[in-house]
Amino acid sequence: MSIEHLILRVVIKVMFAPILLFALYVQFHGDYGPGGGFQAGVIFAVAFILHALIMGLDETKRVLPIGALKALMVVGFLFYAGTGAATMLLGANLLGYDAIDPQSTHHAGQHYGILLVEFGVGMAVASTMVMIFYHFAGREPEIRDEDW
Amino acid sequence: MDILNFFAERYNYWIFITLMMMGLYIVISRGNLIKKLIGLNVFQTSVFIYYISIGKIAGGTAPIYVAGDMESRAHGGGHGAENGGGHSAPGADGADALPGKDALGAGALHADDMPHGDFELAGNDLATLTGNAQGAHAPALHAAPDAGAPIAGAPDSSGANDILAAPALKIEEHAIAAADAVKEVAHQAGDVVYSNPLPHVLILTAIVVGIATTAVGLALVVRIREAYGTIEEDELESADNVAEFGAARAQEAVA
Amino acid sequence: MNILAQLPVIPIILPLVTAPLAMLMPSEKMGGRAPFVFATFVVWAVFAACAGLLHSVATTGPISYHLGDWAPPIGIEYRIDLANALVLTLVSGIAALVFPFSYESIRSEIDRRQISYFYAALLICMTGLLGVTITGDAFNVFVFLEISSLSTYALVAMGADKDRRALTASFNYLVMGTIGATFFVIGLGLLYQATGTLNMADLKIQLAGDKNRMVEAGFAFIVVGMGLKAAMFPMHLWMPNAYAYAPSAVSAFIAATSTKVAVYVIIRFIYTVIGADFSFAPAAFAWLIAPLAIAGMFFASGVAIFQDDVKRMLAYSSVGQIGYMLFGVSFGTEPGLAASLVHLFNHGLMKGALFMAAACVMLRVGSHNCSAYAGLARRMPFTAGAFIVSGLSLIGVPLTVGFISKWQLLAAAFDSGRAWAGFLIVASSFLAVIYVGRVIELMVLKPAPADAPEIKEAPLSMLVPMLILVAANVYFGLHTELTVDLSERAAHALMGAGR
Predict the structure, then answer these.
(1) Are B94 and B148 members of one domain?
(2) Most CB contacts within 10 A, which of A105, B34, C428, C430?
(3) For C450-480, what is each residue's pLDDT tens digit?
(4) B248 CA to chain A: closest CA distance, Å?
(5) Closest among C263, C301, C264 to C395, alpha carbons compared
């Protein structure tokens, strides 16, 4: 391992876990304060993008291969679209989250519904962001070097 | 003076119009595709600011549940001071994970008035919309006008907070002063006043659409760069002319 | 789950949920048949749902569906009446034909690795168009509009495998489309600021009889924004290139649906939201929409005559045809509106068939230039026949749907005392005779170039959907009960709401 960018490498190693933790905080604190799936997803993706910037794209792709990202995008999307659609199966209208917990007197179903939706959003956003980064950063330049 | 007032009272609209025109002008006048996209972004962002500024209520906090609100309502009001107190604290709470949040909430300064809990602006009454109907307490809030400008773009319930945390910190000292004013208002009203959350939600959606558009646009620019070797519009056009009519005709077309 | 009660959301949720699944399917194994077959079945299910909706609306009246069980005006409402049920059926019907049609054409025109993405994007595009049509919430229109537009940008850009100009065409479309959508949002913001509501029906109630500058400005922004999306004349410049360089099947789909949906939104906002009796609507009709419609009818048709590229020619002709639709709206009368709706539906049928024929030529001859059409009547008789019949329909020859539209428009023009308008409609139809006649002459009378290779007729999977669409062109030209009667009732309902 080369000694290049040693400080950056050490810093990213230290930062990586706290960033993920912060993303999770934003994700699950979204019910009570600012936050939610979009923000959490982007923060989550930032950890991996930072990793790729400093350790190189190939290193990151070993952790998160493109195929896995694609699956995560779809699963995340289906999670939030599916939560809405599942309420149809439970007898309510689309997005009628009250059907999740019909006995509740204080609309607990809405709470569960939004929790699931936000989880799906976070997953889809994080994987999409990393995917966009992979595709922009990992493009084989078809342009000759002197054109740059 | 009237004219001056006319402009000053509607400064949020002037910001919106200026940004919008700047963005549109960049899109039209620049030949570089990336610059066009940037212009497009400025244009879209101006609309976000417009929406958010019409959702603002004088003395209203960000539409995020404030602890103690429910209790005070249950007790029939009169506990407003506590709510206000809840506001001024976060100024000191700057090291909190979400430093912008409450500063923004407390900085609820300008714009339109609306009864709390009513998600609709009152009927067709345009007066409410131009900010004329700010309650008696509104002037006090304008004591910290420079805190208002950054806030105008920021009181998003969630999205903008992380990004705009830095400016929010800068205005903290104003915000603390403003928080006192809010405390007063809250005391008078006996309740927490929230800004209208609907425009925030709409704009959160529009922001996502805007990001998607930018991403698609940039992806197209990358492909164009690969296919043509340039991202200048006039060069692209002449490359197409050369491909279609041959070099000589393209020269003629340019001349 | 009560499937009938949930019918209004099925056209939205079904393709939306299945699009990402189509994306996961392999593009290269089995020649990408998996996503193709899957998407086609989904679209057929959607078409069945839309046809069911049309039937139930026609028999029992408008349907209102509350998303998340939140009652409007606070919640989002899907509201289906005759006008949008008709557009829904058009969009899903065209999709149900374009999807099976697309496979052979797409395989030859785009990168094979992109087939699964292509079908995912096409499904999402359809979702967006259906969503714009079905929703009763003004902001929802914007969201769905952008869903369909974003996927259209990607679909147009996929034509880059054949012609790199698809990229610049797509980029220009993106810039213009985004400006249009943003104008639309500004307009919505002004309306929201004036009323505090976004539900279309509630907007109407809140605005009733009110006269103020803010609403007028909002209306202007909405018309300009939607005019951009609909390629209303002088704002059509993105369209010819986008249609010409997009993959042929995509051209067929978006030409037949997306501009129609934008026109529908303009109609919806004029009648359901602003109301034709709103103080400035007549002025807008007389001084803005009618002149632009006439200019589009003549100018765009005139430009179409001089196009070498058949797809570009058809695109310019679309701009002209949009002019007819807006012209009908601008009469401000019930027959005028009904004629617009009829033409909206019928034009979808003819342009779909024409672009499909162009796609067949593209597949076999490999070009959409005029020269490729020389002697086609002998080389590809079915394709040429389809082009001729739908071309005649475009001109407005009796026994075709085009005749019905033109007849309705003429009747509406005379009915509202605008004899000059009737004259203009007939005069501009002669321009269509020239540009369609030019291609027909090439196909029938010119011999094929001597060195032209022997070519086969288009494959059956393309011929069948194309011929069904051509048959629809003739069928709805003879049996007008469905289109004309429904349009008249829809126009009556729209105008009735305006009173």
Answers:
(1) yes
(2) C428
(3) 777 778 888 888 999 999 999 999 999 888 8
(4) 25
(5) C301
